[in-house]
């Protein structure tokens, strides 16, 4: 034991360097993405309340549509990383190109659906008569950028699989700056109003996609990978992504149910819930950055046939997840007197949010484990298990959450149900990780 301990320290330091090198830029890129909507909101907000309300409805639809296809990044990361680990960079980039072609096909399909149905979709979300025309305008124009958004997701997955998270960070920052400048110029300079904001976002997204394509095409030419669409490869990418789509939809259903239950509790509770949910999402970005590092590193180890290395880095990343969760939980508790007043001066909302916020803080170490193990299993290509585990979680969460109003529970009970959801995920993911069944080696799973 005395000889093994010193030997383990260099390995831990190496794992730490890898995790930090991948996770820190990934966090920056993740945080940069929501800034697109924030910039649009800040600029459109000065046009009027109806325009801002229209933007809120349309952006909610767009965010939902794009988040459904986040598997383009997740599935591609692990698949590309496996081939990197196996030493076949040509096949790695070829795998990434299949994901990019799939993104283009899915983007075209989304446009074909959204353009003719935009008014019905806006009406379904309950937009007012004054806000609806602005929402339809923004949605129709912005939908033209969805193929670019999906290409960005897939290409980000390619670069993450190639162990490169710095380029996505730089592209995200550049895209945010371009989006903000274009919005100001087109909305106010050209006098296009909300349409100018939509066109600015489309142009920025297309620019980001173009930069990614240049990077990927250069890599393909360097390593002799084909750029042509391959039907079999595109089908394989779709099949690998399908279970992660189920997982994502199940998770979205959990969030929608929680919000619906909070809305039934009253205006005060739903207002407090929205504040807490925004913080919960921000904390999730920090955890997800570690998970992204896990996807890339685990995929590479398994591609190289190194199961011991994969298990060792998994253990180290769990320690990172727990440590980050503890730090974030303490930060939430310490900063709560400053955080809540940023969103509201209503004392009733403040009182409703405070105990629920403490529940969220206590849940952060558990959340750290969940995000890390989720990333580990994604990197291993264990999508089918992730899909079934999330469906089981949804089945456990739903009745408990829906009964909260009948039991007389409040917002704290809603976030107690969210903690139950995270605990269920921790159990299912932990059991899978301990079983070792995810340790499938080779260039493909």
Automatic annotation (TrEMBL):
- What topology in the membrane does the UniProt record assign? Multi-pass membrane protein
Q: Does the keyword Nucleotide-binding apply?
A: no
Transmembrane stretches in the record are 20-39, 51-74, 100-121, 141-162, 169-191, 197-217, 244-263, 275-299, 320-340, 352-373, 385-407, 413-431
Q: Name one Pfam family in it.
A: MatE
Q: Which UniProt keywords apply?
A: Cell membrane, Membrane, Transmembrane, Transmembrane helix, Transport
Q: Which CDD domains match?
A: MATE_DinF_like (cd13136)
Q: The organism sits in which domain of life?
A: Bacteria
What InterPro entries has UniProt attached to this entry? DinF-like, MATE_fam, MdtK-like
Q: Where does it live in the cell?
A: Cell membrane
Keyword Transmembrane in annotation: yes
Q: Which PANTHER family match?
A: PROTEIN DETOXIFICATION 44, CHLOROPLASTIC, PROTEIN DETOXIFICATION 44, CHLOROPLASTIC-RELATED
Q: Which family does it belong to?
A: Belongs to the multi antimicrobial extrusion (MATE) (TC 2.A.66.1) family.
- The entry's protein name is MATE family efflux transporter
């Amino acid at each position: 034991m005395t000889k093994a301990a010193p030997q383990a320290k260099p390995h831990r330091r190496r794992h730490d360097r890898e995790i930090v090198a991948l996770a820190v830029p990934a966090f920056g890129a993740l945080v940069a993405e929501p800034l697109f909507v924030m910039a649009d909101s800040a600029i459109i907000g000065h046009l009027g309340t109806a325009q801002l309300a229209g933007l809120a409805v349309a952006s909610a639809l767009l965010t939902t549509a794009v988040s459904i296809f986040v598997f383009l990044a997740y599935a591609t990361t692990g698949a590309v990383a496996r081939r990197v680990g196996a030493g076949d960079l040509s096949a790695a980039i070829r795998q990434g190109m299949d994901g990019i072609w799939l993104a283009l096909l899915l983007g075209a399909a989304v446009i074909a659906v959204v353009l003719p149905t935009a008014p019905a979709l806006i009406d379904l979300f309950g937009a007012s008569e004054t806000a609806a025309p602005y929402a339809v305008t923004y949605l129709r124009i912005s939908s033209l950028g969805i193929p670019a958004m999906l290409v960005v997701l897939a290409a980000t997955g390619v670069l993450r699989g190639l162990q490169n998270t710095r380029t996505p960070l730089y592209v995200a920052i550049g895209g945010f700056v371009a989006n903000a400048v274009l919005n100001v110029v087109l909305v106010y300079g050209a006098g296009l109003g909300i349409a100018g904001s939509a066109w600015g976002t489309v142009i920025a997204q297309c620019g980001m996609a173009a930069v990614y394509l240049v990077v990927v095409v250069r890599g393909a030419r360097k390593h002799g990978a084909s750029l042509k669409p391959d039907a079999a490869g595109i089908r394989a990418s779709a099949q690998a992504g399908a279970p992660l789509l189920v997982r994502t939809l199940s998770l979205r259903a959990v969030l929608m149910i929680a919000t619906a239950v909070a809305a039934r509790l009253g205006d005060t509770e739903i207002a407090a819930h929205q504040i807490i949910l925004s913080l919960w999402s921000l904390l999730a970005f920090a955890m997800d950055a570690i998970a992204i590092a896990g996807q890339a590193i685990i995929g590479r180890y398994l591609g190289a046939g190194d199961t011991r290395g994969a298990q060792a880095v998994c253990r180290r990343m769990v320690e990172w997840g727990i440590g980050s969760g503890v730090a974030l939980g303490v930060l939430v508790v310490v900063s709560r007197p400053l955080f809540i007043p940023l969103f509201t001066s209503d004392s009733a909302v403040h009182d409703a949010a405070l105990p629920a916020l403490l529940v969220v803080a206590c849940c952060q170490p558990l959340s750290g484990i969940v995000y890390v193990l989720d990333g580990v299993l994604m990197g291993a290509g264990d999508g089918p298990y992730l899909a079934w585990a999330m469906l089981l979680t949804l089945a456990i969460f739903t009745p408990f959450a829906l009964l909260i109003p009948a039991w007389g529970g409040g917002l704290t009970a809603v976030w107690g149900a969210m903690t139950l959801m995270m605990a269920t995920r921790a159990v299912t993911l932990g059991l899978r990780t301990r079983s070792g069944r995810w340790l499938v080696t080779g260039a493909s799973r």
